Amino acid sequence: MADQFDLTIIGSGPGGYVCAIRAAQLGLKVAVVEKWPTLGGTCLNIGCIPSKALLHASELFEEAGHGFKALGIDIPAPQLNLPQMMHHKADTVASNVGGVDYLFKKNKITVFRGIGSIPAAGKVLVTPQSGPQQEIATKNIVIATGSVSANLPGIAIDEKTVVTSTGALTLDKVPGKLLVIGAGVIGLELGSVWARLGAKVTVVEYLDRILPGMDSEVARQFQRMLQKQGMEFKLSSKVAGIDKLENGALQVRVEPAKGGDIELLDADVALVAIGRRPFTDGLGLDIAGVAMDERGRVRVDGHYKSSVDGIYAIGDVIAGPMLAHKAEDEGIAVAEILSGQAGHVNYSAIPSVVYTNPEVASVGKTEDELKADGVNYKIGKFPFTANGRAKAMLATQGFVKILADVETDRVLGAHIVGKNAGEMIHELVTLMEFSGASEDLARTTHAHPTLSEAIREAALALGDGAIHI
User: Fold this and answer.
1) Which of 50, 130, 263, 435 would suit a FRET pair with 196, their CA atoms being 20 to 30 Å apart?
2) What is the Cα–Cα distance from 264 to 255, expressed in whole angstroms?
3) Whether the domain at 5-149+277-345 and the domain at 349-461 fall into the same CATH topology
4) Using an 8 Å Cβ cutoff, are 118 and 244 in contact?
5) pTM of the model
6) Which whole number is the average pLDDT over 109-127?
């Protein structure tokens, strides 16, 4: 029996490790159980971080090949060194997971290596790859085990030719033809990486639009941008099966979502990116009596407590968007609640970003949601074609769209398509966190020339009108 801990967290992804650090800062004695050799979970090891390394590298490769000449930079056509690009990705991952390891030591957090399970409240059983099991005595438990890629029935994943996001990050050559199943964030990001490196990318989506859940106007315009980059889309379609041919290639059977004639598509690699599902396998939650919902998520109350006293859950294993920063904020909140503070997450002001080029960023309500809710709203828009800095950067694709309440002028949602949209969205997140009005933003001085001026102009458009259009 190990020493008694105040808090034991199962999983060291963004939710788990941030929860551990915050709890340690508040004076709790903290343990973390992690089954992988490295800390950081899916995000740092095989998700957010490595994908951004490849997105950045592939964007620079494309810019050197197609954008430099207009800027007066004449160079020979760039040559792709994929092994070195993957080495950069691996270095990025190692640096980030090493940083978490350092922070755990700095905050005196105890790490147990192995698979964690919960035989009962107050106990966590750790089963290592080799050696005896350990039982941790703990006052509280936080389940932060994250999610895994969802799959289609009848499709076998081998992570070589039929891949999830994990395999798509480790391909040893650029596929001639890449078929992406699912037009959500992961499919579009990884599809865009390989498209920039030379693959012919076709995206199959069951719905009649890309980026489900995002503002429909944003999705329509963004799809046109991706099509200009060479990506093809088959919407309202579903994959009925994937056959592996003798020559190693794939033949994908695609049919209309509502039924109809099957179309055969050839591909070298198929990426299954239809979403993710909460990962609670092996935790023994049924034995512990932890209630789950119909989608396999842990049911929690407003303080992240499950149906069993002393057992909490955060991140992808509970309801809400599967976003690393959402999990982080929930980790901080539950650590503060367990320390007697008033931990809180404002779910109406959580940003989401698609890290393509251009980026798509949003926070709050979409226009579709406001219409459905019967809210009387107004729209302020401003295109980057009218922004001086964007012109200088040859980055005029996209626009800023702000939605505000007609009566109160309170900002209800904001959406940006454009260069660095993921960085720019945060002034709107901050504004919404303080229930700000569009006039507050319109009267805030923005440095000139910056891309962020487009945000102020969109806010001005909600009043008497933008200045530069």
Assistant:
1) 263
2) 9
3) no
4) no
5) 0.96
6) 97
* Residue 3 pLDDT class (50, 70, 90 cuts): low
pLDDT in tens, 249-295: 999 999 999 999 999 999 999 999 999 999 999 999 999 999 999 99
CATH architecture of 349-461: 2-Layer Sandwich (3.30)
Catalytic-residue membership of 448: yes
Instruction: Establish how many alpha carbons lie within 13 A of residue 27's alpha carbon, considering only the half-sphere containing its beta carbon.
Output: 5
CATH topology of domain 5-149+277-345: FAD/NAD(P)-binding domain (3.50.50)
Handedness of CA 236, 240, 244, 247 (dihedral sign): negative
Domain ranges of the chain: 5-149+277-345, 162-274, 349-461
Which of the residues 87, 303, 426, 448 is marked catalytic?
448
Average pLDDT over residues 219-242: 98
Instruction: Give the C-alpha separation, 83 to 184, whole Å.
Output: 27
Which CATH architecture is the domain 162-274 placed in? Answer: 3-Layer(bba) Sandwich (3.50)
> To which residue do tokens 């315009």 refer?
221
In whole angstroms, what is the distance from residue 338 CA to residue 166 CA?
35
Mean pLDDT, rounded, of the chain: 97
